[in-house]
TrEMBL record:
Residue span(s) of domain Pirin C-terminal: 193-290
Species name: Actinomadura harenae
Entry's cofactor comment: Binds 1 Fe cation per subunit.
SUPFAM superfamilies membership: RmlC-like cupins
Co-factor requirement: Fe cation
Similarity remark: Belongs to the pirin family.
Name under which the protein is recorded: Pirin family protein
Annotated Fe cation binding sites: H78, H80, H122, E124
Top-level taxon in the UniProt lineage: Bacteria
Keyword Iron part of the UniProt annotation: yes
Alphabetical list of Pfam families matching this protein: Pirin, Pirin_C
Keyword terms of this UniProt record: Iron, Metal-binding
Residue ranges of domain Pirin N-terminal in the record: 41-141
GO MF: metal ion binding
């Protein structure tokens, strides 16, 4: 998914500033962002006070939206650099096209994983004949220095491993959960999982104490470490946890996001993740000049022009404002 804001802010992120050594309970407030064609999302990362969770650097949550009489998601071709995109649905379908020639319809609980590396472009849209509801999340993972200039790739995993225990079921997108390992390619120690909590369950989910974590609530009403959460909210949990208490009355689901704190300092602007303002400026110029990012064929519409760069220099600073 693209950041379609016409005046996107430059976000300095990464580094260990602001990563506590122990557990916390920090509720992150979303911003409502319009993607056009009647689609709005809740942007939960980056947000005021929190820029990353492990290597996770961008989280949009959308729906459930009734799009029976609407075009649904319509995100024109746009570029990416220095990151992975993770497409995740609870309802609906998203048609992915990219400059590698990939064409794939993604459905609920299927993983679309795009590694941009040095440069790629793609589009995302609801198919012309689509279901009534659209509900999901779009997430980005920052690539470390050793992988950020790798060649672009697209992965689709129609079936994913599942970890189960009393009162819960965890579908593993990236990394490992309780012995279940995702086939998705990861470049840093990371975890992403979609966890269904049964009605009345009292779950203790095992965690890695060296990871920092957050949860994004998707459906139902859940209680995470004694904090009641409604759908569309995100709770940052910090580090130092060996288990996570989860409860639900009526059943619910959430996404667990975590990983080792990302030490490198980054500059994120629009759809690019780099290390310096000069890299970001060069990427923008390449996209506008038709270089490097390739062409997305088959999308019925124009590609997305890059916004103007801000007047101030783009500099990496730290993890929190």
């Amino acid at each position: 998914m693209s950041d379609l804001q016409t005046r996107p802010e430059a976000v300095a992120c990464g580094g260990l500033d602001g990563v506590g050594s122990g557990p916390v309970r920090e509720l992150l407030k979303p911003r409502i962002v319009s993607l056009g064609a009647g689609t709005s999302v809740r942007r939960l990362l980056p947000t005021l006070g929190r820029r990353m969770v492990g290597a996770w650097c961008f989280v949009d949550n959308y729906g459930p939206d009734d799009i029976a009489q609407e075009p649904g998601m319509q995100v024109p071709p746009h570029p990416h650099m220095g990151l992975q995109t993770v497409s995740w649905l609870h309802a609906g379908e998203v048609l992915h096209r990219d400059s590698l020639g990939s064409l794939q319809t993604i459905r609920p609980r299927q993983l679309g994983l795009m590694t941009s590396g040095r440069a790629i472009s793609h589009s995302e849209e609801s198919p012309r004949d689509h279901g009534r509801m659209l509900h999901g999340a779009q997430l980005w993972v920052a690539l470390p220095e050793a992988a950020r200039n790798t060649g672009p790739t697209w992965e689709f995993h129609g079936e994913l491993p599942v970890a189960t225990g009393p009162g819960f079921k965890a579908t593993v997108l990236l990394g490992d959960v309780d012995g279940a390992s995702s086939p998705g390619t990861a470049f840093t120690p990371i975890v992403g999982a979609d966890i269904e909590v049964a009605d009345g369950a009292d779950v203790r989910l095992p965690l890695e104490p060296d990871f920092e974590y957050a949860v994004l609530t998707m459906d139902g009403r859940t209680v995470v470490d004694d904090v009641p959460l409604d759908p569309g909210s995100m709770l940052y949990l910090g580090c130092g946890r060996r288990e996570l208490p989860l409860r639900s009355d009526g059943g619910g689901s959430l996404m667990l996001l975590g990983g080792e704190p990302f030490e490198e300092r980054l500059v994120m602007w629009w759809n690019f993740v780099g290390r310096t303002g000069e890299e970001i400026s060069k990427a923008r110029a390449d996209w506008m000049g038709g270089d490097r990012f390739g062409v997305v064929h088959g999308y019925d519409g124009d590609r997305t022009p890059a916004p103007a760069l801000p007047g101030l220099p783009l500099k990496p600073r730290g993890r929190v404002r």
